[in-house]
Design brief:
The chain is α/β, with parallel strands linked by helices.
């Protein structure tokens, strides 16, 4: 992973290169950024820059052997730690090393992937992953050894907020006083869940959400048509991982719109007409047949369409980019029913539904409950 392959975040790339060039490399850094901002990708690129001595973040061929190891994510002086849990194959004492091959595949497929993507990748079902005390013991063992190639040893801890208290306390000393040429790069989406004793030992770097132009350009470089890239970049709301998911499911977007229109039309008819509740239940049963990720993407699509309707209602036409395709459904006609009186509650209910879907809730019940609530909210003025 090279700096040139990372979307946006040029100010952070420049900072990391300059600090490395000047020889002022903090022994512990914490990269803070929301999903899709490139924290993990940046950490790997930074590690490759330090270990392979690539000039200005580019692979100049000067250290081909090192770059080859990095491309395979198998450099002996690069170590990863990430949240894990027991699975059908790892039944006790789960640690990162036991998931090394799935981890490499996960990063190679998409270094912008989310924690939920990772949990799905290793199929931990409804368990909550963590970085436990067994993992802390492995960290101490690995870093007690000399580097294989005589340079830096780099430990990347992804989702450091999943370090439990016992593990956090166990690595405090080595985090504060690591062996020579040992660098920690911790990654988290928010510092609030990290122990203050960990925070105080790290230099923080904050990653901003990507802008739509950066995401659009990255999608075009992947072969996406410019018009579609513009639409997906705006829908992604600064999250490149979401943009990639939208791109891979682009064929579903028209089907999502049809489901959305069927839903809101039934919600309109349901006012004072109990018989229509049957249509909402059938709609919920149809949504329940989709996979969990598709259900989440549909709900996120709904959030974006409600947002577009609100902007249309408030005459912010320069911000309205979505063009509907379902016959006899126009955003400008729907927009008056999305307003300041109901939008907060609509967003809250959709967000709650995503939360419960992520945690393996009964999708039929979730969508039925959401539908019934929408029949009330859509008429609220």
């Amino acid at each position: 992973m090279l700096f040139s392959e990372i979307v946006g975040q040029n100010h952070i790339k420049n900072h990391l290169v300059q600090s490395a060039t000047s020889g002022r490399i903090p022994h512990a850094q914490l990269f803070i950024g929301q999903e899709g901002t490139g924290t993990l990708a940046m950490a790997i690129a930074y590690a490759q820059y330090l270990l392979c001595r690539n000039i200005d973040g580019e692979n100049t061929g000067g250290n081909e052997s090192c770059n080859t190891k990095f491309n395979a994510l198998m450099h002996p002086d690069l170590h990863f730690v990430y949240p894990v849990a027991t699975t059908s194959e790892v039944t006790k004492h789960p640690t990162s090393d036991k998931f090394a091959e799935p981890w490499r595949n996960f990063i190679k497929n998409n270094p912008y992937g989310s924690l939920i993507d990772w949990y799905n990748h290793i199929d931990i079902q409804n368990k909550q992953g963590q970085i436990g005390v067994d993992e802390a013991g492995e960290i101490l063992k690995k870093l007690a050894l000399k580097s294989y190639e005589g340079g830096y040893k780099i430990m990347i801890i992804w989702m450091a907020d999943k370090l439990n208290t016992e593990a956090s306390n166990k690595i405090l000393k080595i985090l504060e006083e690591p062996p020579a040429k040992t660098i920690f790069i911790l990654i988290a989406e928010s510092e609030t869940a990290i122990l203050q004793t960990i925070l105080s030992r790290c230099q923080l770097l904050r990653f901003n959400a990507l802008n739509s132009v950066e995401i659009e350009q990255a999608l075009v470089e992947r072969g996406c048509a410019k018009q579609q890239a513009t639409l997906l970049a705006r829908q992604a709301q600064g999250n490149y991982n979401k943009a990639l998911q939208l791109l891979s499911n682009a064929a579903d977007s028209s089907d999502f719109e049809q489901k959305f229109v069927s839903w809101v039309r039934a919600a309109f008819r349901a006012k004072g007409n109990a018989a229509v509740i049957k249509d909402l239940v059938e709609w919920s049963e149809d949504l329940a047949t989709l996979g969990r990720e598709q259900q989440k993407q549909f709900l996120e699509f709904c959030i974006e369409l409600f947002r577009q309707a609100l902007l249309c209602n408030y005459q912010s036409s320069n911000l309205v980019y979505y063009q509907t395709t379902v016959a006899k459904f126009k955003l400008e006609n729907f927009a008056p029913f999305v307003n300041g009186a109901n939008i907060d509650e609509i967003f809250e209910e959709l967000s709650n539904a995503i939360y419960h879907i992520e945690r393996n809730g009964n999708s039929k019940m979730i969508f039925t409950d959401l539908s019934i609530k929408l029949t009330r909210l859509i008429h609220k003025k």
